[in-house]
């Protein structure tokens, strides 16, 4: 446990080979917390893997806290962890929001990044948020969207993110949790190409969904704390010297493949592997295979 502010203490863990190539694995959400399977994308004989529960989630404290919780707070936390562990440079790995945070960290500290392995690229633009939370994915999963929208009165559905924010910040716990369950389950039911039958079990756990929904919505209400829409993509031109591997499911509903495609156009040196029979989940078989190959290759390819 590392105290990173007067309010926040974050949980950090390591696994693998203490003398291996350093790698940082960033979880999604924001607010998702680390999970055991994140370790399995790395060869434990070759990598020293560092994982951290970002502010307010997992085993970090206080739970579901949105105060002092911004992208740049998390970037600063990553640097604190790197310095604490005496790591000069590391591979940064992340999927979904983890890809957003990995790119933000690389933009702020490019000299500390030996390489990037990203999955389900999410640039946190207004268009991506609108596609998933307002209108777009709703056309593919109208049944799940109906369950998601059911906690919001029809007259407020013109801006779902704001309507959920009102409830997720309510002083009434029942109101907060009802909204949190609906918000989180929408993502859980659409994360896999298999749909609702592949709902991860933790999306039924109140402790998980509270942090996941409250923190995620907080970041999206604040446009990722970036200075302008599209800021993250605009950083690509000055990061092209960093080796980049991208894996993206063709049928990713949460973070459409257009974002990965656009990033590849700005970063021509990047490797982009499109998995033809996958959605957003890191546990789709084709995505697992591609990510393991990517970390294996990066062990040799990255300029350590």
Q: Can you offer a commentary on this structure?
A:
This protein has 304 residues and is α/β, with parallel strands linked by helices. It has two domains: 2-124 and 225-301, Rossmann fold; 127-223, no CATH class. The chain has ten helices and nine strands. The chain has helices at 71-84, 97-108, 126-133, 142-149, 160-168, 173-190, 206-221, 231-234, 258-266, 285-301; strands at 2-3, 9-10, 12-16, 21-26, 47-52, 90-95, 113-119, 244-249, 271-275. Strand 1 (2-3) and strand 2 form a beta hairpin. The radius of gyration is 18 Å and the shape is globular.
Which key features would you list for this structure?
304 residues, two-stranded antiparallel ribbon, 2 domains, alpha/beta, globular, seven-stranded mixed beta sheet, 38% helix, Rossmann fold
């Amino acid at each position: 446990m590392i105290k990173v502010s007067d309010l926040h203490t974050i949980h950090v863990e390591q696994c693998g080979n203490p003398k291996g190539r350093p790698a940082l694995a960033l979880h999604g959400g924001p607010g998702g917390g680390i999970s055991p399977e994140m370790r399995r994308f790395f060869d434990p004989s070759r990598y020293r893997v560092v994982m951290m529960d970002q502010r307010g989630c997992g085993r970090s404290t206080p739970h579901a806290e949105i105060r002092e919780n911004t992208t740049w707070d998390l970037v600063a936390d990553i640097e604190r962890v790197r310095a604490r562990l005496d790591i000069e440079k590391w591979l940064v790995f992340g999927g979904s929001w983890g890809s957003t945070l990995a790119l933000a960290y690389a933009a702020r500290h490019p000299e500390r990044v030996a390489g990037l392995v990203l999955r389900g690229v999410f640039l946190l633009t207004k268009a991506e948020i609108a596609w998933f939370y307002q209108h777009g994915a709703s056309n593919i999963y109208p049944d799940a969207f109906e369950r998601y929208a059911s906690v919001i009165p029809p007259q407020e559905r013109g801006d779902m993110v704001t309507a959920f924010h009102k409830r997720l910040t309510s002083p009434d716990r029942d109101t907060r949790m009802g909204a949190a369950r609906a918000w989180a389950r929408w993502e859980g039911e659409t994360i896999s190409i298999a749909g609702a039958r592949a709902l991860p079990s933790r999306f039924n756990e109140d402790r998980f969904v509270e942090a996941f929904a409250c923190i995620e919505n907080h970041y999206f209400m604040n446009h990722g704390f970036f200075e302008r829409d599209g800021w993250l993509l605009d950083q690509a031109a000055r990061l092209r010297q960093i080796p980049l591997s991208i894996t993206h499911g063709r049928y990713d509903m949460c973070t459409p493949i257009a974002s990965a495609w656009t990033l590849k156009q700005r970063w021509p040196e990047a490797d982009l592997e499109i998995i033809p029979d996958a959605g957003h989940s890191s546990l789709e078989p084709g995505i697992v295979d591609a990510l393991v190959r990517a970390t294996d290759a990066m062990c040799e390819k990255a300029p350590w």
